[in-house]
Design a protein that fits this description.
The structure is a homodimer. The first copy, chain A, is an alpha/beta fold. Chain A has 14 helices and 15 strands. Chain A has an 8-stranded mixed beta sheet with strand order 10-9-11-1-12-13-2-14, with helices on both faces. In chain A, strands 3, 4, 5, 6, 7 and 8 form a 6-stranded antiparallel beta sheet that branches. Chains A and B meet through helix 1, strand 14, helix 14 and strand 15 of A and strand 3, helix 4, helix 5 and helix 13 of B. Strand 15 of chain A pairs parallel with strand 3 of chain B, so a sheet runs across the interface.
Chain lengths: 404, 404
């Protein structure tokens, strides 16, 4: 079932939808037979909501696939992550709130250190402070060739997003980053016809960057840049185009703001960085949008650093805030994750993600628990993450009848 | 898994299959936490059959999609309803048992009322009685232009099915129906090359119809017709072609007889209109076919009119008749619906449909209850409706091994 098909069924409504994404929500027990992070957490509010919901386990990109944040989010947002692929360069630029245009070519950049022979001795230039990088990035912004603009946008420490904007650029380019020490930076080469101009100008930019960095502070070890992951944005139909939804995103971290912007969400300002600050932003803008995506980062951060107890606490923190959402009387609430990040694995994983869809017209499963095993018994079963959004839209009375 | 693939595996057998479709079977509780219509109904025979069956919840057209009867039936019949789309005009003609040919162009028609300036003042001509419409339709049947025949088949009250048959007709046509009062009927226009002749003759037909209606009874307010939803039949491979099945349909209402005919079923005469009459037709023709589709309308009628108790009674009526099916010793029995029609929603809905597949070789779930929640625990899980038919065919020993 394609998005075009859903688009044809979309009807206007005055309903409000909230999607709470706890990043990396799915987990694993510390020991076989034990409880996962979510099952361990005391979650009276999520459990109560679960009892009035349909439950299932979502598969973000495909069975056995451990997705990154980009595909994980596209999946739960209702898009097939295998069809709409966001490359790392584009994600990096989106992540720093750069207004990436459809024809821009983006890459990830590092400041690095090369020795006198031009060989990379530190791919991260000793993780220089962000303030130093910001100054160096300012230098590079002066570069301009032919009819092409270059953007150098700081991420943090040694990392920046690199963007080329101008006519006739292609994104089929190899990395200049050799991906290991002891090798010199590589020339950017074309992978397909049509990217010759982009390759030529990327190489000229790198040469010029080396000169500028050397001139700026010849004794400083930050004397070169590396570019990798050239790509451009996929064309993604927006929530407004598809469903007539005025959608807002509440996320502190740049990458999630970027992915949300890609599907046409308005990214709201958050006054602070805690989950409570995010819930406050939701309350403030409640009247202005139909759909709210609220992203919680802490669950994934804890999962990826192996902090089982920290992930449990992060989930309990969200549970304690949940009544602030239900107090707004939303028509539909989705609680899920973009992927699993079990603390015992210290990484994103392929495990399906506990998911609930609440609405007054759901045929509730009558399972008063929100956890991996509980969701596995839910009537949604194990389902592609992209199927959640149509179910949520139906519950929000935003999909009309198909056929007679 | 496509139908062509299944066709390649089909093998002959002498088994008998029965598919009982309770229209709009799936429901919702009256109050959160309560029981659905099916869960409320006393269904000892269905429960006993369930205990020897595999259970699941079928998704007729796609997650979140509320299907009409056409796509709902195509789904449970084993076809992808998004691939085989039946337009409204074709459905209307099928619905009145009109023998629609593959190249016929069909539309929905209304008798209507226009004022002296030609503006539509009543799109339904005061919902004139069917007998009056039938007489007027008789007038219009006299119309014939060039090498094209026109059919005007009564549905009921002001509604009729309109069919054009002849060489060189296309169906890419706009409606003459302005879809609101206060506007004149619109000329039929072509949407694609190839439909010019059809547009021209449809407009000539409409002009002629106006003259005939005026001449017939100048003071009667039924003085015009409106046509909408021009289309033709999709090409659907039949049960005979796909599976070598001699299939029969037992349905009282025209639309279901029409959809059954589309997939190549022989529509049986029913002596009466009650479910008991339908079960009698099944018994009478038991020796003549391999596959029987038996359609019960009452469940949907009650659901769509918000009559929870009436839907419960309709289900109990079918349950009481079920022993007449099991007495025939069928090899496979499917009990399902074409979609859900919860009484609380008074409409078709997106909720998945309780479904059982009985056969002597099923790996029974051991759940002695036929209801939404019970089926949600079944081993079939939540599955596309079109996947039920292959499972049923396998249980009827009508699918051979794939590969060596």
């Amino acid at each position: 079932m394609g998005l075009e098909f859903l688009q044809g069924l979309a009807v206007p409504a005055r309903t409000k939808m909230v999607m709470i994404i706890m990043d990396g929500l799915g987990g694993l027990p510390l020991k076989p037979g034990g409880k996962t992070e979510l099952e361990t957490a005391r979650t009276p509010n999520l459990d109560a909501l679960a009892s009035q919901s349909v439950l299932g386990l979502t598969v973000p990109a495909g069975p056995g696939i451990s997705p990154g944040s980009g595909p994980g989010h596209l999946g739960i947002f209702g898009y097939d992550p295998l069809r709409y692929e966001i490359g790392r360069g584009a994600l990096e630029a989106l992540g720093v709130d750069f207004d990436l245009h459809p024809d821009d070519v983006a890459a990830r950049g590092n400041f690095c250190t090369v020795d006198a022979t031009g060989v990379v001795v530190d791919r991260r230039a000793g993780r220089i402070p962000t303030e130093v990088s910001r100054e160096l990035a300012g230098l590079l912004r002066a570069i301009r060739f032919e009819d092409v603009q270059f953007f150098v946008e700081m991420v943090k420490e040694h990392r920046f997003a690199f963007v080329m904007r101008g006519p006739g650029l292609g994104e089929a380019l190899t990395d200049s980053d050799p991906h290991q020490k002891g090798l010199p930076p590589l020339p950017v080469r074309t992978l397909e016809p049509g990217s010759e101009k982009a390759a030529r100008l990327a190489n000229r930019f790198i040469d010029q960057a080396r000169e500028l960095l050397a001139r700026h502070s010849p004794r400083v070890a930050t004397n070169m840049i590396l570019l990798r992951g050239f790509d451009r944005l996929p064309r993604v139909p927006t929530y407004q185009e598809l469903f007539g939804l005025r959608a807002a995103a509440i996320a502190v971290n740049g990458m999630y703001r970027g992915v949300a912007r890609l599907v046409g969400m308005t990214v709201l300002d958050v006054d602070g960085i805690t989950p409570a600050d995010e819930f406050a932003a939701l309350e403030r803008s409640w009247g202005d949008f139909d759909f709210f995506y609220l992203h919680i980062k802490k669950t994934d951060t804890a999962g990826e650093s192996g902090d089982f107890a920290g992930k449990v606490r992060a989930i309990e923190e969200v549970d304690a805030l949940l009544p602030r959402v239900t107090a707004l009387n939303p028509d539909v609430v989705i609680v899920s994750g973009d992927h699993s990040s079990p603390a015992v694995l210290r990484s994103h994983s392929w495990h399906p993600v506990p998911t609930l869809v609440y609405g007054k017209d759901v045929r509730a499963d009558g399972i008063a628990q929100f956890g991996e095993r509980a969701c596995g018994r839910g009537s949604l079963g194990m389902l592609p993450a992209k199927d959640v959004m149509p179910i949520a839209l139906a519950n929000a009375q935003r999909l009309g009848k198909y056929g007679a």
